[in-house]
Fold this protein.
Amino acid sequence: MNELTLYYLAAMSLMLVGFMGLVWKRNLIKMVLAFTLIDTGAHLFLVALGYLPGATAPIVDDAGMFAQAQSLMVRQGAVVDPVVQALVLTAIVIGVGVTALMLSYVVRIYARRGTLDIAELRRLKW
Amino acid sequence: MKQLIGSVFVLVMGLFLWSLVPLLGPSAGYLSTYFTQHGVADNHTANLVTAVVVNYRGFDTLGEVLVLFASVSGATFVLRRRDGLPTAQPWPASEFLATGARALFAPLVVFGAYIFVHGHLTPGGGFQGGAVVASAVLMLLLVNRDRHLPHGLMTWLESLSGFGFVLTGLIGLAVGGSFLSNKGLMPLGEWNTLFSGGLIPIIYVLVGIKVGAELSALLDVMFHSTGDADHQEGQA
Amino acid sequence: MVANLLDPILLFALPMGVAFLLPLIDKLGRSVTHAVHLLVLAAMFGLTGWWTWQLAHGMAPIEIQTGGWAPPIGIALRLGVTEGLLALFAQGAALFGAVYLWGREEHGDIRAIALQLALVVGALGLFMTRDLFNIFVFVEITGIATYALAMLGREDSALEAGFKYMLMGSAASIFLLLGIALLYKHTGHLNLDAMQAALAQGSPAALSVALGLVFMLVLVSFAAELKLFPVNGPGLDMYEGVDPGVSALMVVTSVNGYLYAFYKVLAVFPAEWGTTVSVLGMVTFVGANLMANRQTQVRRMLGYSSSAQVGLLVALLPMVRAGHVHMLPVLLLIANHTFAKSALLWLAGQGEKLSLVEWRGVFSGRTIQRLTLTAAVLAITGLPPFPGFFGKWEVLTDLSAHGGAWWIGAILLGSLLEFGYYFKWLHYAHQGEESDVPQVPVSAQIAPALSAAVLLVGGLGMSLWRFPELANLSLPVAVLLGAGLALVLVRELSSVVSSGLALLVVLGVVGVTVGAGLELNTLAGLFTALALAGGTVTAIAALSVPTLKGAYHGLFLLLLSSVLMVVQSEHSLTFFVGWELMTWTSYLLIAQGREGARPAWVYMLFSGAAGFLLLGGLLVGYAHGVDSFSGMEALTGSAQLAAWSLLVLGILVKIGTVGAHVWAPDAYTESPDVYTAFLSGVISKVPVFALVLVLAHLGTGALTMGGYTFELHHLVAWLGGLTALGMSLLALFQEDAKKLLAYSSVGQLGYVVAGVAILSPLGWAAGLYHAVHHLGFKAMLLLVLAGVIHRTGTRKMYEMGGLIARMPLSFFIAMIGIIALAGVPPLGGFVGKWLLYNALVEEGWLFLAALMMFSSLVAFLYLYRFIHTIFLGQLKTRHREIKEAPLPYLLAEVALLGLVGLVSVWPQAVLSPVNAIAHSYLGGRGLGFEGELVFPGGVVRGSELVTSFGSYDPVVTMLVVALVFVLSAGLLWVSVPRARRVGQLDIAFAGEVPPPPEEIHFAFDFHRPYERVFGAVLRGQAVKFWRGFGDAVEAIAETSRGIYSGDGQTYLVYFFGLAVLLGALQMGL
């Protein structure tokens, strides 16, 4: 098993644990936590997609590399994919926003209904 | 029953995803190659991720700021009612926490600011720096739950930094011919120095302020999500 | 440099900048904030409108770059016509939505305003962006703004709905993120166009498996966002739980945004995978419409409807991509849904969560809301002249040209199910007295009205632009349309003024038509004359009804125009537009009866089914490039059979042929009394017109089985005969005089159908002659009865009696009417039946002839009861002082008397046009009538009618009968001594307790002996069948909606299940 497969395995395990949490846990806070687990797994997955063996972080901070960069000759595979990292940055912030909103809902649901059990939120149905 | 069926579904989904792994070997696509090759030349930023986040995909980042703005406004909106929960008892902070917080607050704010000011050079940027600043605020709130952030100042910071981002984009449009363009207005500067990257550091500083203020406001609102309604209406 | 700034990116920069600055703007005052909000939306609308106008006039789509980088490096956006229109819908409706929320307390919260702006920005982003990850960002913006806005208004149910919705939305966004990441990995691009190009180059087989899974991820994600079956549970909860103002915003912004984003993403995948999408969408359309029929909560019902409508649009997207369906009609459907659904949701915001039953009377006396609700329901159910109709029409014709018969069937089925619940709502809202639901603020009334106005104006404009043939209206039709619309809008106009105006308009139209030289020798001319004659007398009679206001008269004019539109057009579209216009105007008129709401609903269901069958038939034509009835002559083989069967089936349902008659008696009975005359006299003849048209151009449908060919027109003729018999028998058992005439009307149509279906000149002569004559006598009888009801206030025959003393003129006219109906000489009824028997015998259809003769006997029985129990016998005490029917009634009746007299004495007036019509159609069709027609060159030998079996001279007959009548009456007068008049109270009960008055009245259960024989087999059999059918449909709906258990976790399991199902499908497992 190479390094990359390991990353994928970790990412998918995180997501799987999260999905299982969604199915098995009825506590609202735990469901929110499950989502953050899935989010984390997905972010890890994204970053792993950009992995290149032996490459460094996408920051051109040594003079040698800069010289290459100026002549648009950065060696293929010198740095990992900066795009997925940028995407993950965005995705993380979005995840934070959704989590904050979910938790606010949980606070209000507990205040109004006195429960944190998803199965008890069944006034609207059919 | 429902749980079992759901688990089976989840496991099958896991299998589906796992079956993809052999196809996802290391490879660099068009965009990735382009940014690696041209990132430095185009923007004179050392941190390629920052170049992507703030310039190439700056429009996404503006959207991201809007997402954060919407979710903080949303959380505030959701939590505008405070009935139904007992007023939280003030939690006496331990001496250790109180002293530590007092000692760390200023360094943390400075560190956060450092991160977003150097977003184009080193790992991190506006979002990360903003989060560090907010964590400084978190410590203050942990020490004294009754503390309220200076509302007026926060509003000004939030509003102007967000508007500044949009305005910068419009300036790019007017000067460089496209929204958030980094061409023509400011010199791109010399690689790997503080004053490089054209508008990128400016935008990232604005983002840093915006994120710091938004997250702090969010913490403020969550800390004060209990208690009677009159108490909070003054805050709105 | 400043000119650079006029870039569509402003549509993002402006609202975002303002949203960020809102807390500062608010320091200037709350009213400034509100004004800025509306101004921003208006400015965006103006800018978008300006660009869209230019784009529609040939400007190339505007490609927008960001960050200074051309695609595929930077994020690119595009503003083309489609994007522009979608943006206009969203901004316009969001503007109305802001108006709706204006007066709300929570709306004062600036966060709510900022979130509304974010929602609009999100939708615009979804429309315009060409970047896949950017789509994700905008999905999140709209999502988060929706989750937060859900808390506007009351909290408890919104909390529950919002949280479940958020769970589903978050699961969906993770799937989308994974899908995007994998697509990026495979193509190296995020720009959609570049991605598409990269994938189009073909990829190794292994990758296509991966692509299949990516497709699954994306599809499941959008299914949840778009609320498709089975992952629409939380979406439904949202509609029920949150403030309707918020659900409306969701419909107008995010739903459309997701839809178009999905369309763009679909383009990346192989075209053939679109079938999966279409199936999922169509299942949602039919299923959600089915389940909506079991809803009692209006808001949840609207949720199901949204799910269904979006399902339809989703199903169409892959077809648009494949080039089978145009984009424009889909845009029309989107616009229709946007504005109609938002209007309906805003209207549903009246009061707290009202269940269907509580809607009774909510809008009585609230003109704007009533009109808005009606318009919005008509629009969303896809009736003309609203955009939904034209959108659906074009989609269906596009589909038919591409062999999409199954899709068409599903769309029509779903649309019919949609009729069920929407007209049920309308039916509740239309009935009952004032309710105590408080009136909403003006701003909340204006918003839906604005949406409805957009629908009406937009629908009319688009239809005229897209289908120029619709602009080819004759002057009378146009005048009637305009006048009708105007009167409908001033629905509370007093009865005197509005009825006078309506009569003037009708007379003017008659004048114009006659002045232009009405050609009676054509089918169109004959039926135009019929419609105008019926319209005139009904308009005259309506002068005397004080309860009928502007709304009635306006609808009546619209109805008349639609009838003219139908009979004057041979183009399929104009025909169908007229037909559907007729259907809904008629529906609304029936609903104006005191107890008319429910019968009108049943009428609408059957008419809807009839309309869709008819549409199916027309579409068979379109599948073969035929867009008119006359063009259908070119159809052969199975296409001809399919078109013939669908058209005839639809017509028979609309006529109310036995089996499908259940809608008719109640609809006739409960309509406003004056309108019933028109319904029976004219409207029921329109399907007859269509039947003639179909038979003329398509001949008969030949069903070949095992070498034996069965010609289906035999079946139609028999159905006509059975209708005549069955309805006449049912008429016997009615206590309600109007219902008696209603059954009689349907029964008489049976004669017409039988005659026309004989497919011989003589048969046509019989059928069409009877159709015209039926207008005369049946409208006359109904108007007499209307006069009687007007004076006595009852329809029960046992509550009448002896009215000859107080209403002698009415009696006389009724007597003429029943003589005409009974089919005895000297009046026209005899001519019609004589011709019919001749035609039947000529064809050798002797059994049918016997059947018809028998049903004529039955007609005697109910007619005898009618005149005997109403006009003869003892006068009731309470009727001692009543007067003769009002003058307008009598005038109208006398006019009809003239018509009956004319066709009785001079049948040629009808027969020679019919002769010409039969000659032009039947002669040319190769049906074996090439030879001499039965009345060659008109009716010969003076006034005499001659067939191969004998002759009949109406003039001589009339003279003889008159002579005999005068003589015998004189003889009676002289010979019978004056009898003593016995007053009604001249009786005694000798100490017995009298049974309930109706039971001792001789008129009660008049035909009991016959009922003992026939009643059991007849009464309620068809009703029982249809009720059972309805119950079965409802039971299916009830069972299937059980999957929405309300448990958010279960919904997530559905989500995963859908993922597994689609994944397995894509991997070919």
